[in-house]
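User: Hello, beginner here. Can you help me understand these amino acid letters and fold codes? It all follows right here:
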Amino acid sequence: METARNGYQKDLAEANVSPWTEALFAAELLLLHATPVYYGFGVPRGDGSGVVIIPGFLGTDIYLMELNAWLRRIGYQPYFSGIGLNAECPNLLIQRRLTQTIDQARKETRRKVHVIGHSLGGIIARAVAHQRPQDIASVVTLGAPFRGAVAHGSVLRVADAVRKRILDEHGGGVLPDCYTGRCTCNFVDSLRREVPSSVLETAIYTREDGVVDWHYCVSGDPEADCEVPGTHLGLAFNAAVYAVIAERLAKVHSASKSSTRPG
């Protein structure tokens, strides 16, 4: 199967998936506040590690405030990405903004950093994990189509408009195929590779996704792939997602403790 790594794009509407179901994300936000997980009950406590969270396409850090507050509540040091609106060349976002945030988290916590990315933010998170494995403890993707750019036609049309704006704004500062799978920048090159074995990978997805094809959001490793019910947009406010995140982050520091114990 050809993927976006080779420049492939497909309209998800062909699969009869309706984006209108995504309106249900508001209900997921309300339900989140009614669950014990939201208040930190029944999930492993954090070890104070830094967690950088990255918004999805056309999103900003603002809509990740719930996730940020929850991570702090269960014992982690969360950091907003600082990338602003996620409608820019991913390579530039990493180089000019995200790198500084990760450096700050690494310095302040004196530990490797976890990165969590929603949708396009998850693709960026995977790229960072490959580029900086010495600084990244784990990467968690939420509905991130890292296996191919298969999304609803409306999303693809907006992405094309963003691409044209990037080329107009940056000119020779970006490659001609920027914002496509044909680009040869460090960001796309990172996506051609698997997440380093030293980084714990988690790919959370929903089969009810009305924005991207969930088949492209999984790694193929049953140990890493986690299915949850809900919408694409709602993955940032989903109690089942939060429970998985808590378990996976805890697995990293549990493994770290075991490795430092005297034999």
